[in-house]
Fold:
Amino acid sequence: MPLKERLNWVSIAKTVIAIVVIVMLGWYLIQVDFKEVWAQVSAVRWSFGYVMITTCTAYLLATEAWRQCFPKDLPLPSLGKMFMIRQIGETLTMLTPANVIGGEASKVYMLDKYGIPSTASTSSVVISRGLIILSYLSLGVVAGVLILLGQAQRFGVVAFLIVCAGVIVGGIVGIRALRTFILSRDKQ
Structure:
């Protein structure tokens, strides 16, 4: 396919994606009852500020964690630019029918503008998404253990200890496997 024809398709694809995002955002905003949202925000009062601060901190830390998934010798955009790229990708993930595929692909595309090779950005996105899933699973396990702590008398201490040992061993194996994967990737 000639370069000019490819550029036309890219232009058309960008326009279509932009239209889909705008339509989905519009549909989302139409569905929102802003009076109810304001009532909920008013009900939590000053705690809303605390929620916003902790959420922003979590997003910044997630961005820094994503930056750590790139090869060490690769010059990366600033934390602020990476934060914006990540937020745009996450927004596309939430608002478009393409979901995670569209959002993650948009991150790779935007990083290409900064001269980041697509192999490095794709690997970082996959590793970052894997770490997010691992953290969700870890939080689920911790929540499960805390629930089991409350149920230990009902199920018996021995059953509880067996479950805890399994969780610890599974966590260690998972972390070691991830560490081995990351170290093997750095050697390449």
